Amino acid sequence: MDRPSALDQQELRVPPRPADEPPVVERKSRWWLWLLIVVLVGLGLYYYRSRSQGGASKAETTTSTIAGARGRGPMTIPVVATKAHRGNIGVYVNGLGSVVPIYTVTVTSRVQGQLMTVAYNEGQEVNKGDTLVEVDPRPYQVMLAQAEGQLAKDQAALDNAQVDLKRYQDLVKTNAVPEQTLTTQRAVVDQDIGTVKTDQANVDNAKLNLTYCHITAPISGRVGLRLVDPGNMVQATGTSNLVVITQIQPISVIFPISAVQLPPVVAKLRAGQRLSVDANDPNGKKLSQGYLETVDNQIDPSTDTVRLRAIFPNTDKSLFPNEFVNANLLVEEKTGVTLLPNAAIQRNAQTAYVWLVKPDSTVMVRPITVGTVEGGNSEITSGLSPGDTVVMTGVDKLQQGSKVIVHFESGGAGMQGGTGAQGGAPTGPETGAQTMGGASGSTTK
């Protein structure tokens, strides 16, 4: 028989493992399981405890808030308000007008010749009679000399004929010459007189042409750009424009108004009143103030308008020819009326109204009647009295009987129900106010 090896003998000497001893792998798996259970239980206890504390704190906060709200009473709404006041307002008639010079002259040459000098600068202010340009006068000086020579010759012939006439008149008395000779001599004298008059007219015409060579300003005003340069030939037919002169001071504005607005304007003019007119730029800035001069003699049937001319002194030259301006014609000025800023007026489909602040610091809807509107103010013909406090901004949060805290834009602190100084116009839009019927909707300014 074969004998067992040394390795086999060692394996035979390993003691057997007890039957109740658990495996090492199973013991490690149970240790991690118990650790996971402990962690989950700890997290659950922590979450339950923190939730219980948060709920108690929230309940305490809610209770204190409700208690504070009950202690303060109804919620008050801050608003910006203004006061109706007594003042004056103008009734204006507006129209888009154009600045039109009273006089505009296009200077041309009355004689033909070469343009020698230009005595003005472009854009210069000139006075009536100032020299503008010079046309070459030499051809007309020659023509004047010729006319004067012919006049002298014909004048000498006339003098001789008059001497012969006097001699024949004496000879006829003595019957030295026939009567026919005297009659013929009288005709010769009359012919020479006509010739001398023609020569004198030629002299005057030559002198006039010399005057026309010296072209002066027919009116005072501002010259435009130069149209002809020195050295060019100008014609006497009027086709060669030399310069345009426009009167700047005074200047006029022509603007249309509706035919419906014409009767009160005409009535004021017939009564001898001078109506004031303001010229404003498109941004509303006042450029100049003048007066109404006249009304056109007919209405344009295509537009149902009539044109008016207003005169402006234009001392500061703020009005420029052909400039578009907004003309505001003051027809009437109302004094001692109730005025309210336009921003405080609310409108719906039926009427205009305001949110009136009562003495107990609550608001109510008050219907009003709006009269003349001018600038940022409106005339209130009914519904308000001077001193009434009206809400301007914050109307979107108001309801009938809401409690408010009034602020004025003049800088005053919050005040109750209509006390404080009058504020200016609001800076924010007003939308969504409760209407008089109780429904809410957007207001239209």
Ranges where pLDDT stays below 50 over 5 or more residues in a row are: 5-14, 58-73, 411-445
Helix content: 25-40%
CATH architecture of the domain at 122-240: Orthogonal Bundle
Give me the count of strands. Answer: 24
**Average of pLDDT:** 81
Distance between the termini: 126 Å
Sequence of secondary-structure elements = HHEEEEEEHHEEEEEHEEEEEEEEEEEEE
How does the overall form come out from the CA principal axes?
elongated
Strand content bin = 25-35%
Highest-level CATH class of the domain at 122-240: Mainly Alpha
Largest sheet: 6 strands, antiparallel, barrel
Per CATH, what is the topology of the domain at 122-240?
Helix Hairpins
Class derived from helix and strand content: alpha+beta
The helix count comes to 5
Any idea what the radius of gyration is? 53 Å
Q: Order of strands across the widest beta sheet?
A: 2-11-14-13-12-15
* CATH superfamily (homologous) name of the domain at 122-240: Helix hairpin bin
Describe what this molecule looks like in 3D.
With 445 residues, this protein is of the alpha+beta class. Among the domains are: 51 residues; 114 residues, conserved putative lor/sdh protein from methanococcus maripaludis s2 fold (Beta Barrel); 119 residues, Orthogonal Bundle (Helix Hairpins), CATH 1.10.287.470. The chain contains five helices and 24 strands. A hairpin with a 5-residue loop joins strand 17 and strand 18. The longest helix is centred in the first third of the chain and has 49 residues.
